[in-house]
């Protein structure tokens, strides 16, 4: 049985080595394709053992095959990871507070335009998509921070603290999403989705939902006009919708399997 598993693993690797380097070359460029080719030679050498050794050490051979395959995939994905942008979203000046409903609306619109301009100026389609996904949360964070003077001392400060935590979270989940999007075809074909990044997103979503519930409760206690309440409720709804999207992304990534996913 173990010898059969080893044979299947070696066959899968041989197939992958024969078919996928050309795809990796197209994906990562000529110099990066050469890196995949060099790693391919190492992987094939690692599984070239004698029949006698295979018969007596099939378990060890199967493990070596899987590790060699993983090394090939990781090297193929490395250039994409190196190109991945690190997102760190800074907060606005603490003095940028709204003192009326019209002032709050204007600050929200001004910030919306800034975020749209930042998205439009992104250098790659992938980064534009990442910013488009993150910007509703960033806008909501700005609105919540700007509203603290309208919400009253104690409640306003609690809302601001939660908003800052949401800002840290959106930077973290955007970076995890960037890692998922930059995962190369070669790695995905062999090993499926980026389970680590997907798990990080799921954990962030769980924490964020607790923060959103706390925000809704605080807004319910605040002594504000119906119009201000409606503006801030819309921002909380945007936060909730962002978490739904992130959770769907994480679940899809966790379910994505590759040829060698059964080994891990």
Could you say which overall geometry the principal axes of the C-alpha atoms support? elongated
Structural Rg: 25 Å
In total, how many beta strands?
Answer: 0
CATH class of the largest domain: Mainly Alpha
Strand content: under 5%
Summed up, the helix count is 12
Mean pLDDT: 75
Question: Poorly predicted ranges (pLDDT <50, ≥5 residues)?
Answer: 1-84
Distance between the termini: 18 Å
What is the N-to-C order of secondary-structure elements (H for helix, E for strand)? HHHHHHHHHHHH
CATH architecture descriptor text of the largest domain: Up-down Bundle
Task: Describe the fold and architecture.
The protein has 264 residues and is mostly helical. It folds into two domains: 2-83, no CATH class; 101-263, I/LWEQ domain (Up-down Bundle). Helices cover 81% and strands 0% of the residues. The protein has twelve helices and no strands. α3 runs antiparallel to α5 (58-83), α6 (101-120) packs antiparallel against α7 and α11 runs antiparallel to α12. The longest helix is centred in the C-terminal third of the chain and has 30 residues, at 226-255. The chain is elongated and about 60 Å long.
């Amino acid at each position: 049985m173990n010898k059969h598993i080893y044979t299947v693993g070696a066959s899968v690797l041989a197939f992958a080595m024969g078919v996928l380097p050309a795809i990796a070359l197209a994906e990562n460029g000529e110099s990066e394709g050469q890196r995949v080719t060099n790693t391919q030679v190492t992987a094939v050498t690692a599984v070239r053992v004698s029949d006698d050794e295979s018969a007596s050490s099939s378990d060890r051979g199967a493990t070596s095959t899987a590790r060699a395959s993983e090394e090939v995939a990781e090297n193929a994905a490395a250039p994409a990871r190196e190109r991945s942008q690190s997102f760190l979203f800074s907060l606005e000046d603490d003095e940028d507070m709204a003192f009326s409903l019209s002032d709050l609306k204007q600050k929200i619109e001004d910030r919306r335009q800034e975020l749209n301009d930042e998205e439009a100026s992104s250098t790659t389609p992938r980064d534009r998509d990442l910013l488009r996904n993150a910007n509703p949360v960033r806008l909501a964070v700005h609105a919540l921070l700007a509203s603290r003077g309208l919400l009253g001392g104690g409640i306003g400060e609690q809302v601001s603290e939660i908003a800052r935590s949401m800002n840290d979270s959106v930077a973290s989940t955007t970076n995890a999403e960037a890692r998922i999007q930059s995962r190369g075809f070669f790695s995905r074909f062999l090993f499926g989705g980026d389970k680590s990044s997907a798990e990080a997103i799921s954990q962030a979503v769980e924490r964020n939902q607790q923060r959103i519930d706390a925000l809704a409760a605080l807004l319910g206690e605040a002594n504000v006009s119906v119009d201000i309440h409606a503006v801030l409720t819309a921002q909380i709804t945007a936060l909730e919708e962002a978490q739904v999207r992130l959770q769907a992304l994480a679940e899809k990534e966790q379910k994505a399997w590759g040829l060698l996913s059964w080994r891990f």
